[in-house]
Amino acid sequence: MAAEKIFQSAGALDDIENLARLFANIAVAAGALAMETLANPNIASRLKGDTSPVTEADERIEAYLLRELEAALPGVPFLAEESVSRGATLGAGDAFLLIDPIDGTREFLARSTEFTINVALAEKNAPRVGAVYAPAQGRVWFAGAHGYEARAVPGGSLPPSQDWRPLRARPRPADGLVALISKSHLDEATKAFLSRQRIARSAPVGSSIKFCLLANGEADVYPRFGPTMEWDTAAGDAVLRSAGGVTLDPDGAPLRYGKKADDYRNGPFVAWADAAALKAAATLP
To answer: Where do the annotations place Mg(2+) 1 binding (predicted)?
Structure first.
């Protein structure tokens, strides 16, 4: 389904900015389910076929997101993490939704604040709209043509627009880059990449928050060489691109979405806050 038809099917959602707000509000509302689960002394979880953990919150949040998105955007194809793990496939269309109910499930199980709820729309192989909500931090990042950060309590909604902070990635610092690395998946390829850059500081951060910190102007580069799926990156990538950043694959091209032949798996990528910095950066190994 083309994005223009998506907007028409949503009635009052007649532009990309309203769609970004919709995604943000749905994610914020779903945050209450995550926090309810965290309030339990024991969180029920199991391992999926790929050995990654899934919790009761993943499944409850995904069901909520799908219900709300179907009501607002009926018939739009979607990729949702837990549905795909049960064998669901993507329908036909050049635009589709990507949903990750909890990115950073290991952080969630450890009761860290670094997990997120993610909703995105991809069109023509690019993430066009995205929302990332960190319920335990009360921070939401959302983007269509423009990106914003706001504060919102789990189960609530976006504040008035005057309380949104526009996102803008920062220029490459003269004194070295701040690099963000995965908390759970630091590998030798990442270490080798960082050794070739001028790094002032590196910090482990969980989930898609890494993309958002690049978009916020708080960091400069996020390399990822381990496995990820399209729903892991789409919302954060949309936020970063709206702020002037870019996520590149090993060929130096923007990360693509809708890779059916690869079962919607991403290859290695590097997310950059400042595209101009790429002229001085090493290529992917």
So the answer is: 81, 100, 102-103, 232
Question: Which domains, and CATH codes, for the chain?
Answer: 3-166 (3.30.540.10), 177-280 (3.40.190.80)
Helix (H, G, I), strand (E, B) or coil at 152: coil
105 is in an annotated binding site: yes
Instruction: Tell me how far CA of residue 202 lies from CA of 42, 104, 114, 187, 272, in angstroms.
Output: 33, 19, 16, 14, 14
- Give the count of beta carbons closer than 10 Å to the beta carbon of residue 195: 9
- Phi and psi of 129, rounded to 5°? -140, 140
Structure tokens at 279: 């002229």
**Distance between CA atoms of residues 40 and 203, nearest Å:** 30
Q: Which two tokens stand for residue 27?
A: 């994610």
Give CA–CA dist 167/244, Å, rounded.
9
CA 160 from chain center: how many Å? 23
- Helical residues (DSSP H) of the chain, grouped into ranges: 3-9, 16-38, 56-72, 81-85, 105-109, 188-195, 209-216, 230-242
| pTM score, whole prediction | 0.92
Element containing residue 87 per DSSP (H, E) = none
Burial of 224-262, coded b for 16+ CB within 10 Å and e otherwise, reads bbeebbbbbbbbbbbbbbbbbbbbbeeeeebbbbbeeee
- In the beta sheet, which residues pair with residue 45? 55
> How far is Cα 57 from Cα 124, in angstroms, rounded to an integer?
31
- The answer to the question of whether 104 is labelled as a binding residue is yes
Smallest CA-to-CA distance from 238 within 17, 14, 69, 64 is with 17
* 15 labeled binding residue: no
